[in-house]
Amino acid sequence: MDVRQYLSRIGYHGDTSPTLDNLRAIHQAHMLTVPFENLSIHCGEQIILDLQLFYNKIVVKGRGGCCYENNGLLSWLLGQIGFNLKTVKAQVNNTGAHPINVVSIDGERWVVDVGFGCVFRTPIRLAAGQEHLDVTGTYRLQQEGETWILERKSKTRLDPDANNFGATPGGIQMDDLNVKSGEWVVLYNFTLQEHKLQDFSEMCSYTQRVSPFFTGRPFCILHLSDGLITYMGRKLITTRYYETHLTKTTKVLDSDDAILSILWDTFRIKLENHLTVKE
């Protein structure tokens, strides 16, 4: 695995010394270039917790990945270039094990997560009650004993085809649905107990076999400078963020060829195996 090739994959050509500014820049570069996707599950491909496989898929083949792949590979990169970090386990809706990274810089700790679909684009300081403004919404961390709770306040949704937009997989747009504007919504909670990649093996297996979010419909999400582009099932959903609100528009993809064209034209993804599409 090669650090320079990884940085080239995410379009980052800046300084790599372990500073906060560089961490922010690398985090955002990853979010804007590497999709969050479950296409392997719907192509009959097994996701194995192995860094070399993550690297081959994301860097060499230009694919995206699920939380284990995106956050696992970013953890490797940050460690290689000198950042002090550890991986911890987040609980989503009181179930599951979502890996996130906590980076320590100059006596402060920062939450790093590039594997949750629609989430903050730059790291959040690990401090209770501080609001973190982001194009995707406003975030904050709350603390209860040893448990940290990540919350997001959604923007007002003003889109012409809201009735045509279905609920999307965990983290992607959950808080935009059936939530009043300005309400804080819990995304996940975590402690600072360190975990190894293999500690997530049981949940990784569950995600591929049982989890309705990941086995229901194929999806692929990529951040844009001012929004998100989401492929899901037989729809392409474009989200645009504004200062106080967001909009969504939906395009129906009426054939498998149209889906494959979108995956290539929009996400630069060329699949090696047949994609089984559920709607």
Name the descriptors.
279 residues, alpha+beta, eight-stranded antiparallel β-sheet, six-stranded mixed β-sheet, 7 helices, 14 strands, globular
Structure, described:
- Helix content is 25%, strand content 32%.
- The chain has 279 residues and is of the alpha+beta class.
- Helix 3 packs across helix 4.
- The chain starts with a helix and ends in a 12-residue tail after the last helix.
- For the termini, the CA-CA separation is 37 Å
Give the C-alpha Rg: 18 Å
Structural class of the secondary elements?
alpha+beta
Q: Please give the count of helices.
A: 7
H/E series, N to C? HHEHHEEEEEEEEEHHEEEEH
In quaternary terms, these chains amount to: single chain
The largest beta-sheet arranges its strands as 5-4-3-2-10-8-7-6
